[in-house]
Amino acid sequence: MADYESVLKGKYPAKAHCEKVVAHLRNALDEKDVPTTLYLQGQTTHMQEDNDEAAPFRQRRHFLYLSGCLLPDCHLTYHIPTSTLTLFIPPSTPTASSGPACLSLPPGPLKIRHRRLPHLRRPPLPPPRTRRPRHHPLHHRSWRHPPPPSDLTSAFPTLNETTLHPTIDTCRVTKDAYEIALLKKANAITASAHTAALRKIPSATNETELVGQFLCTCVSAGAKKQAYSGIFGCGANAATLHYQHNDEVLSPSKRVVLIDAAAEWEGYCADVTRTMPLHPEGFDRESAQIYVIVEQMQNACFALLKGGVKWEEVHELAHEIAVEGLLSIGIFKRGGEGDDRKGEIMRQRTSVAFFPHGLGHYLGMDCHDTGGNANYEDEDPMFRYLRVRGTVPEGAVVTVEPGVYFCRFIVEPYLRDERHRRFIDEEVLERYWDVGGVRIEDDVVITKDGYENLTTAPKGIEEMMRVMYSEADG
Ligand code: GLY
Ligand code: MN
Question: What this chain does, per the record (predicted)?
Answer without folding.
Answer: Catalyzes the removal of a penultimate prolyl residue from the N-termini of peptides.
